[in-house]
Amino acid sequence: MSGDLVAVAVEEERCIGGGQCEMLEPEVFLLDDDEAISSVIGSGVLPRPRAEVVVHRCPGAAISIVEHPEASGTDG
Amino acid sequence: MSPTAVPAPILAPEIADPRLYLDGIPHERFARIRAIPGLAWHPYGDNGFWAVTRHADVRAVSRNPTVFSSAIGHTNLWDLEADALEARRSLIDTDAPDHTRLRRMVAGAFTPKNIRRWEDAVREITVELLDIFVAQGGGDWVDMVAAPLPIRVILAMLGVPVADAGYLVELSNYLVEGTGDTQSLPPDAFGNTTELRLLPFNSPASHALFEYGDEMRSKRRAEPRDDLVTHLVEAEAEGGRISRHEYRHLFHLLVFAGNETTRTAISHGAMALAANPDQWQRVLDDPELVEPATEEIIRWATPVLHMRRTAATDCELAGTPIAAGEKLVMWYGSANRDEAVFANPLRFDVGRRTSEHFAFGGGGPHLCLGAFLARLEVSVLLQEMAARRLFLEQLGEPVRVASNFVHGVLSVDMAPGGAS
């Protein structure tokens, strides 16, 4: 269902520091001050549709969705 | 040319002639090209290019840099000899891993969080410029607001004295000329002795900008500060994380792209607000519209009109076979008026709830480095105009740049009106 939470991951080598992830989801992604490489912060989970938008907008195709272990165990 | 088994491609109407752009983007021609199935071929010079005009196709090219290379050929329409390509190569004309390495040298300064730190400085400059504009009863909007705002901000970030802003805007104007087909400078201007074909935009102004960057480099080597030039100089010193050549071209790019593009956005934005006072009234009535209005102004302006890629291998796009070595040119102004993505695309609408415009590039790794800075500058300007309930009245036609590459405005007279 659309409310499913999914985890997201950043592939560091592909990240070009475009900042779309931090713009869209500032509570989940933060770019470092030096080389602007993104990393996942906080819980690192998002509702699936929002995660898909971030994946779609990442200019380096560096972000992927990983099914959240807890969410995948919930079918309700 | 195409192999005999492949039907001859449909030819695109002329869109590369710089003089066409004196009347603005030829939207009607681009609409015709978007409607052509597959890709249309546009003759240019000795060969030509595939005209990539639809939003989806621009995205597909942008996001596949392995096939559609920035490094194999030049990223502008015309081809360069191998030595010129190397001499002129900047961040723009690289692929990964060089592109990633160079971008990381400067990207930290341009993240959303770090750009927000410049908000007060941007506001201070904006207030000063708007107050003068209103007090003097208006004038040339480009000269009074659109040009000084972004150049002062990027110079502050670089650590360049603001007193030199006028000189660097002048150099930028000469560089813009180099994207058209007329140059007003003699080849030896600014003491240039380099062959023009080896200089960005074929312009002796590039020599002057390189020299200026070298001077900044020497100053910051002697006396480091907390600014971008110092950061780059240290990266060069620390085991050559960037080369001297790369420093010169990054400085050139940051000054030029950091002022010319946002200047264009602010110029077209002012014209759009003057022509659509109902849209400006909506922003005044609802401050939450500043953000979508900012995106709409940037879509509307599309300051950089195209970038070219070169096919690294035989491939296919939109059902059209493309041979290795062929050129593809992404026309961002066309993607930003694609009726498949934008309802009423020729309408200026501050309430659009999409930021999927391609004014910062087509969504691939060459995404505009200064996107968040441009957004900040435009949004602070709108906020300060709104605080003054400043309506703009356009007086006469703008003077546009004859260029198929930058959507530039040299001057446009505006008068303040409607302030209550």
Q: What do you see in this structure?
A:
Chain A is 25% helix and 26% strand. With 76 residues, chain A is α+β, with helices and mostly antiparallel strands. In chain A, the strands form two sheets. Chain A has a three-stranded antiparallel sheet with strand order 4-1-5. Chain A is globular. Chain B has a single domain, classed as Orthogonal Bundle (Cytochrome p450), CATH 1.10.630.10. In chain B, 45% of the residues lie in helices and 12% in strands. Chain B is built from 16 helices and ten strands. Chain B has helices spanning 27-34, 55-62, 82-88, 98-106, 112-116, 119-135, 141-146, 148-158, 165-177, 204-222, 228-237, 244-275, 277-285, 290-301, 332-335, 371-387, and strands spanning 40-44, 47-52, 68-69, 139-140, 306-311, 315-317, 320-322, 327-331, 391-400, 409-417. In chain B, β1 (40-44) and β2 (47-52) form a beta hairpin. In chain B, α6 crosses α16 and α10 packs across α12 (244-275). Chain B is globular, with a radius of gyration of 21 Å. Chain A binds chain B through residues 13, 16-20, 22-23, 26, 30-37, 57, 59-61, and chain B through 62-63, 99-100, 103-105, 107-108, 110-114, 361, 363-367, 371-372.
